[in-house]
Design a protein that fits this description.
The structure holds 3 protein chains of 3 kinds. By secondary structure, chain A is α/β, with parallel strands linked by helices. Chain A has one domain: 3-Layer(aba) Sandwich (Rossmann fold), CATH 3.40.50. Chain A is built from 8 helices and 6 strands, in the order αβαβαββαβαβααα. Chain B has 3 domains: 96 residues, Beta Polymerase, domain 2, CATH 3.30.460; 33 residues, no CATH class; 315 residues, Cytochrome-c3 Hydrogenase, chain B (Orthogonal Bundle). A 5-stranded mixed sheet of chain B has the order 1-2-5-4-3. A 3-stranded antiparallel sheet of chain B has the order 7-8-9, with no helix packed on it. Chain B has a 3-stranded antiparallel sheet with strand order 12-13-14. The radius of gyration of chain B is 22 Å and the shape is globular. Chain C is mainly alpha-helical. Among the domains of chain C are: 284 residues, no CATH class; 49 residues. Helices cover 70% and strands 4% of the residues of chain C. Chain C has 25 helices and 6 strands. In chain C, helix 5 packs across helix 9 and helix 10 runs parallel beside helix 12. Classes of the chains: A alpha/beta, B alpha+beta, C mainly alpha. Chains A and B meet through helix 1, strand 2, helix 3, helix 4 and helix 8 of A and helix 4, helix 7, helix 8 and helix 16 of B. Strand 6 of chain B pairs parallel with strand 6 of chain C, so a sheet runs across the interface.
């Protein structure tokens, strides 16, 4: 055990410093894509609903058919680089102790029941965050017999974190929005610029998706092919 | 571009005439034989006796609607094609070859292809009911725990019915297909460019492997060869991905044994690999770089910097590996748990680190070398102990091997120059298999193109083939060993369910 | 008080007669009530005698032919008479509520009568007569079942009790040979050589071990409890009072200071009994056999305290003897009261559900509230949870063991330490066992196989009264110690209560200022904490309300009763840990009806588990086999031919004739 401790001490601190309110956004070398998260119109952050829930938020995750990469990015938030426990976000195994539910994947048919059950079992006040492009809207997996085409087809979403997959910083920004804490680099409460109807949201998702999945340059390639087909 | 197809030739060990099969033209590495519906089972038996490994059975549309059973034998992929015209019903292979069971059930449930002699199952494999509970064991002590689909921790959705007497585990039933998105159908009608994007998102943690497999299949179907430099870049992305997956499995293994310092150290290594990929390609998962015909571009990192970063990672990895394997409190819990005897692994046709931990040496890079691996000498890491510790050792061995391959490949990239991409014909047509060694095991894809658009894609994912073994991985283990054994498998439900 | 005593014994004697002639249930109810009245009077008599009143005597004259005999209630007998009255009265009220058959009511009343006779008798032969009648009643009650297993259990119970009776007779014969009298008073003041004392000690132990359940003679208890019909088991538990009384009176009172090895041996035996008893209890699925093994465990604990008393007596340290004896008596009182309550409660459960095993039960607390409360209170007491009576007595036993450093020999000190460790393990296992027992009967969801369940009767008067007594036994411990101390004064030579009660509500082991315990305050403070917490919660969250959501089964919507833990699975890990002593084995067996593929729709397996109860396998089975073999040989002599019997008579005549000149 001593060896492990010496190893950690010799490496030094690797955790990214968290900026104070008002400072610029985190300069994250991990990604070159945008890291915005979006608050759904009409959604109220947890802090406005329960005054005490600012520094101790318990997070539960449910996978409703994602491709597996969003889970890696969510898991990364608790690794020593990001370490969001120091910001007051804790992972919980029981939805009965959770304040925030992270949902990934377009909701597949067998996962509808478990998703609704998980949501029912969580105590008030609670927030739902849709993580990943497939959870935020139809796109790759449109609504059919197998998938519901996004979480908003099944239940009301409070925060959208688009990306394929969204980098950990984006998910962190989403958690901060849901909690009602100030998000570094994002002004106001992060609502999308246009009025909150779903088509406009899709249009803005189209642009963020193109940039965040790393395809360089060919903006209209393939993506439009998918939407047209 | 020259067409790479060659007439099929009889390979060692079996003559097609003995099977009553008619050879058909196939690209290099594949052997395609046409058999009649009634001869399929006997041909499969001949394959079994010859020592082949069952890969999958699927529906194809080229040249006509047919059923194709794929086997891997001595460096070749043998496809037995049964034309589906007429009402002849094939005899079930899964009745006596366990590796074929789930593939046949999938065909039966999704496409209505019935095999004679197959068992009738009450529960649907591909559409599981989260509310039902399977009971096979009776007894005063025994009850069934449905574990999943929402499991503790951040994991993908899959359900297990664990029949337990309180401490020991007489039976386990694995129920995948909670995440079935029908990805194979979402390829239809797309061009190869868009198809690669879809392929990357079938199993997100193995994006490069799926993209490379898809690209190879398309290239072989239209008869195009990717340039060498592109193949080298593909190898770089795939090996980086293999490292990330193995580090993730080892970190999870440390977490289940409550060695949280070990978990943190390997999470650091994995994050370093992810950030390296992000600096190299702009995406933490190296998405968007592999395309059909080659790669999209050079990485955005200086190759000397890349080598230096790899050196740093290797130094850290060596130290952490030594401490990890030296922590007796953790290794004691892994040694002896989840034993999978070699005979069982062979019967189920398992692939990947799982098979290599039980003494086999199946590795697609070694059996049917593709891309850059035709020019590299590969050391296949295999262990004989068959338990969870052996699988962890295999992963450590492969990490070292991946670093060696990376260094060699980046060195070649530094010294030479070349094209990055071959243009695909505008209205390409053809059907072919592609295969890669994904981090979870051998991945095989069947791609059919017509007029430049995808017509059919079939994916034989390593995760699904290996999950079938999970029910037998608890011979003498107790309930608390469940997490170790599950993580030592290191599979992804997204790839299994597609 | 003498008159009250006479009326009490009269009522107890009238009850069986009434029950025998009663054809209608109403008359049986009256018989049971008559018995109950006798018991209530017995309680009054006993408490009065224990607290130092004039000792009542019921003269029986010399009709037994072995000297003058009487029912004489001194201090010790008073304690046990009160205990018998309380437990027997509750059982009699239970009989009155739901009368069983004619014979069972009569047998139960007879058993009660002769337990009272045994406790009060001052003549050894009267004691022997009462003891043998108890044996007959126990055998008849235990073998009243219908199945072969029940009959075998009855034979085992009866056989072991007969062995005990034989040992008792031998002990009495030895004592008579030395003193030429059957009077207990004469025996108490007689001096016996040490060797004889040791032999008589062992014989008495063998006899009373069969009644209270000390290994290796404990078989009668779980077997008898399991096979007795309905309330027969509760009646059998009343006989425990006679067993413990016999131990106290004969081993401590009559025999006087015993050699040190007796106390050491009893320490070891008690600890082993406690451990094995609870370990076997964990393997039991039958509702009443579990309680039988729990009785074995608690008998072991009581015996440990009693052993300390014997060691103190042997070393001529009356304070140490008082510490041990007080602890043991407290334990006997707490255990007997709560065990009878548990058996009465489990009888109601069996009546309502018609099930005798724990597996099909669940969630009965809503439909059977009286049984739930009764068994809840008794489970808490038997598992030694503060602030109830079981915790107080267990605390006293541990404190008595902690006095081990005062003992003269090194062996005694070592054994005390080991016994304390063993008792600690027993307490932990006991908690596990009762959590399983109570939890799977009353809490959780009902299982699918259970049909409609309803309360069997509406006025559980006996259960309520006994339940209240057991509930407040811990809080009323100071007064209980007054009674016990005063009752034991005759045997110890001083009133232990004055040393044990340093302050009106604070208890200590008889050694002043060694340790303190205040169960009365605990009984006030602990519930008060709970109430305060509840009030704070109500004040803080009252406005938010409560929303109920279904049980979380990792996202599955399966029916909860199908995926709950089974009772055997709950105690499975402990059985795996104890797999050595328990001989625990499992085997997965394929049941026919499954094809070669091994994965079709309905292949079936069965998990067979087996446990070896060492005493049953290595002692009872060979002994029973030997006995059957001998009986087989003897049967040959019962050929049924007249000529053979004439021959036997001729041989007996010749032997008798030849003995006369030899003896004269």
């Amino acid at each position: 055990m001593l060896e492990w401790i010496q190893r950690g001490l010799s490496q030094g601190r690797i955790t990214t410093r968290y900026p104070r309110a008002g400072q610029a956004a985190l300069a994250d070398i991990a990604t070159t894509g945008p890291t915005r998260a979006f608050l759904a119109p009409g959604a109220r952050p947890l802090a406005t609903r329960a005054g005490g829930l600012r520094r101790s938020i318990h997070v539960r995750h449910i996978d409703c058919g994602s491709d597996g990469s969003e889970e890696w990015e969510i898991q990364a938030l608790w690794n020593p680089f990001y370490d969001i426990q120091r910001l007051g976000f804790f992972l919980t195994n029981a939805p009965r102790h959770a304040d925030v539910l992270l949902v990934t994947g377009p909701v597949t048919a067998p996962m509808r029941g478990p998703l609704q059950r998980t949501w029912t079992v969580m105590p008030e006040p609670k927030a739902l965050i849709a993580v990943g492009d497939e959870a935020c809207s139809e796109g790759l997996c449109r609504a059919d017999a197998l998938t519901a085409g996004g979480v908003e087809a099944v239940m009301a979403v409070d925060v959208y974190v688009p990306g394929s997959p969204p980098p950990p910083i984006a998910i962190l920004n989403g958690l901060l929005l849901a909690a009602g804490l100030p998000v570094p680099g994002q002004d106001g409460d992060g609502t999308a610029g246009t009025a909150g109807d779903s088509s406009a949201r899709k249009a803005s998702y189209g642009s963020t998706r193109t940039a965040s999945d790393g395809s360089r340059g060919e903006a209209g390639d393939g993506v439009e092919g998918q939407e047209a087909a | 571009m020259s067409v790479v197809q060659q007439p099929a030739r009889a390979t060692t060990g079996y003559p097609p005439e003995r099977l009553g099969a008619i050879p058909e033209p196939a690209p290099a590495g594949e052997v395609r034989l046409r058999v009649g519906a009634l001869a399929l089972a006997s041909s499969a038996r001949a394959m079994h006796e010859a020592g082949a490994r069952f890969v999958t059975v699927f529906l194809a549309d080229t040249p006509e609607r047919s059923l194709i059973a794929a086997f891997a034998l001595r460096g070749e992929l043998i496809l037995l094609r049964v034309p589906a015209s007429g009402d002849a019903v094939c005899e079930s292979i899964g009745a006596w070859w366990p590796a074929a069971r789930w593939a046949e059930r999938e065909l039966a449930e999704l496409h209505g292809i019935q095999f004679s002699g197959e068992d009738r199952y009450a529960a649907r494999l591909t559409a599981p009911d989260p509310d039902s509970v399977e009971r096979q064991v009776s007894g005063l002590d025994v009850f069934s725990i449905p574990y999943g689909p929402v499991r503790s921790g951040i994991f993908e959705a899959i359900q297990f019915h664990i029949e337990t007497g309180g401490e020991d585990v007489p039976r386990i039933h694995t129920r995948p297909f909670f995440k079935r998105r029908g990805m194979e159908d979402r390829f239809v009608g797309l061009g190869p460019e868009a198809g690669v994007r879809v392929a990357e998102r079938v199993a997100g943690i193995a994006s490069c492997a799926y993209a490379a497999c898809f690209a190879q299949a398309v290239e072989r179907a239209v008869g195009v060869q990717a340039p060498r430099r592109a193949e080298r870049w593909r190898a770089v992305y795939c090996e980086l991905e293999r490292m990330a997956c193995h580090l993730d499995v080892i970190a999870k293994q440390a977490e289940t044994t409550a060695l949280y310092v070990g978990q943190a150290r390997f999470q650091i290594l994995k994050e370093q690999v992810m950030r390296l990929r992000s600096r190299l390609t702009g995406s933490r998962f190296a998405r968007g770089m592999i395309v059909a015909g080659g790669v999209r571009g050079e990485g955005t990192m200086d190759l000397d910097e890349l080598l230096a970063a790899l050196d740093r990672i290797e130094r850290d990895l060596r130290r952490d590996r030594r401490m990890f394997l030296g922590t007796a409190s953790m290794t004691d819990r892994l040694i002896g748990s989840g034993r999978l005897p070699r005979a069982l692994v062979e019967e189920y046709g398992a692939v990947g680190p799982l098979a290599r931990g039980s003494g086999l040496s199946t590795d697609a890079r070694h059996e049917r070398p593709y891309g850059n691996y035709t020019r590299l000498g590969l050391r296949v890491v295999s262990e004989r102990d068959t338990d969870a510790m052996a699988r962890v050792r295999v992963r450590f061995g492969e990490l070292s091997e991946s670093l060696r391959i990376l260094r060699q490949t980046v060195d070649h990239l530094r010294r030479r120059d070349g094209e990055l991409r071959t243009e695909l014909p505008a209205a390409g047509e053809g059907a072919a298999c592609g295969w890669v060694e994904a981090p979870q095991g051998e991945l095989v894809m069947w791609v059919e193109l017509r007029e430049g658009l995808l017509r059919r894609v079939n994916i034989a994912s390593p995760s699904l083939r290996n999950w079938a073994l999970f029910d037998h991985a608890f011979p003498k283990d107790v309930l608390t060993d469940f997490a170790f054994i599950e993580h030592s498998f290191g599979l992804t439900p997204a790839g299994a369910d597609r | 008080m003498t008159l009250t005593y006479q009326i009490a014994m009269g009522a107890l004697a009238l009850a069986p007669a009434l029950a025998l002639i009663a054809r209608a249930p109403a008359l049986r109810r009256i018989a049971a009530l008559c018995s109950a009245v006798g018991c209530v009077l017995l309680v009054i008599v006993g408490l009065d005698a224990a607290l130092g009143g004039a000792e009542p005597v019921v003269n029986l004259g010399g009709w037994l032919g072995f000297g003058h005999s009487a029912l004489h209630a001194d201090g010790l007998a008073g304690i046990f008479l009160a205990l018998t009255g309380l437990t027997g009265g509750a059982v009699a009220f239970a009989y009155a509520e739901l009368p069983p058959g004619r014979w069972l009511t009569a047998l139960g009343a007879t058993l009660l009568l002769f337990v009272a006779v045994a406790i009060g008798s001052d003549n050894a032969f009267l004691f022997l007569l009462a003891w043998e009648t108890i044996t007959v009643c126990v055998y008849l009650i235990a073998s009243a079942g219908r199945s072969a297993q029940d009959l075998l259990a009855g034979y085992l119970t009866g056989g072991l009790a007969k062995i005990g009776g034989a040992a008792l007779l031998a002990a009495f014969a030895l004592l008579y040979a030395h003193t030429h009298s059957f009077s207990l008073a004469v025996w108490t003041h007689a001096t016996l050589p040490a060797g004889t004392r040791g032999v008589v000690f062992a014989l008495f132990l063998a006899c009373f071990a069969t009644k209270v359940g000390v290994i290796p003679l404990q078989g009668g208890l779980p077997a008898g409890y399991g096979s007795a019909p309905r309330l027969g088991a509760a009646s059998l538990s009343v006989a425990l009072c006679a067993g413990f009384y016999g131990l106290w009176r004969f081993e401590f009172g009559v025999l006087g200071p015993l050699p040190t090895w007796c106390g050491d041996a009893l320490l070891v035996l008690g600890a082993i009994t406690a451990l094995l008893g609870i370990a076997y209890a964990l393997t039991q699925d039958n509702l009443r056999r579990f309680l039988g093994y729990s009785t074995v465990e608690h008998a072991g604990v009581a015996l440990v305290g009693f052993a300390v008393a014997l060691l103190g007596h042997a070393a001529h340290m009356p304070t140490l003897a008082a510490a041990g004896l007080l602890a043991a008596t407290l334990h006997v009182c707490a255990h007997n009261l709560s065990k009878t309550l548990a058996l009465i409660g489990i009888d109601r459960v069996e009546q309502a559900t018609h099930e005798r095993t724990i597996d099909p039960l669940g969630g009965l607390s809503r439909v059977l509230p009286a049984s739930a409360v009764a068994l809840g209170v008794s489970s808490l007491t038997l598992a030694a949870i503060p602030p109830l009576g079981g915790f107080v007595s267990e605390w006293f036993t541990f404190e008595a063991l902690l006095q081990g450093f005062r003992m003269p020999t090194l062996l005694s000190r070592l054994l005390c330490a080991l016994a304390a460790a063993g008792l600690a393990l027993t307490a932990g296992l006991g908690l596990l066992a009762f959590a399983k027992y109570y939890g799977f009967i009353f809490l959780g969801r009902a299982r699918e196989r259970l049909g409609a369940v309803a309360e069997p009767s509406r006025w559980p008067a006996g259960t309520v009264v006994l339940g209240a007594i057991v509930l407040f036994l811990g809080a009323a411990a100071p007064w209980e110690i007054h009674v016990l101390g005063s009752g034991l004064e005759g045997m110890l030579g001083f009133d232990a209560a004055s040393s044990a009660l340093s302050h009106p509500l604070v208890l200590g082991p008889v050694f002043k200022e060694f340790a303190v315990l205040a169960p009365t305050w605990l009984a006030i403070v602990l519930p008060a904490y709970a109430l305060i917490a509840f009030a704070i919660a109500l004040a803080a969250n009252g406005r938010r309300g409560v929303r109920r959501a279904p049980v979380w089964i990792t996202g599955s919507g399966a029916e909860l009763s199908a995926v709950q833990y089974r009772p055997s699975a709950y105690s499975n890990p402990m059985r795996v840990i104890l797999r050595g002593p328990l001989g625990y084995r499992t085997r997965l067996v394929r049941i026919a009806g499954e094809n070669a593929a091994g994965e079709s729709a309905a292949p079936q397996f069965k998990l067979e588990t087996s446990v070896v109860l060492a005493v049953d396998r290595f002692m009872y089975a060979p002994a029973a086999a030997l006995a059957l073999k001998i009986a087989g040989y003897l049967r040959a002599s019962q050929s049924g031919r007249l000529s053979a019997y004439l021959l036997y008579m001729l041989v007996a005549l010749i032997v008798a004739l030849s003995l006369v000149p030899i003896l004269s």
